[in-house]
Amino acid sequence: MKQPFKQMEKILPALWNDRVTIYGVSETNDGIFNDTTNKVIVENESAKIVLKGLKASDQSFFGTDTYDAKLILRNGIKIPAGAVVDVLDANGNQVRYKRASKGYTGYISHQEVALVRDEKAKE
To answer: Which CATH code for domain 2-120?
Structure first.
């Protein structure tokens, strides 16, 4: 039963037109001090963004750009909760998602990450 999904795992990324760079943090030690530094988890990875909802009536304050989205990408990438995700879509537009869930890897063919974009609108 898993074999068709394993084949789909190889084909799906060819259908995804978005490119993502995902950033996390790692702990570093400087003598007796502990600190965190940003690190790139994956860069220029094929993925797909799916908007979960985008309605003007849901906006609590006009002048913000807030919506929920879902990131779909291949399994094998460990995405921690709180990761920052930069998405470059097929039209060349770049969007930064500042809040992410931990990757859900329950599917054989891909994983899903819930994202929230919450920024002040700007031109």
So the answer is: 2.40.10
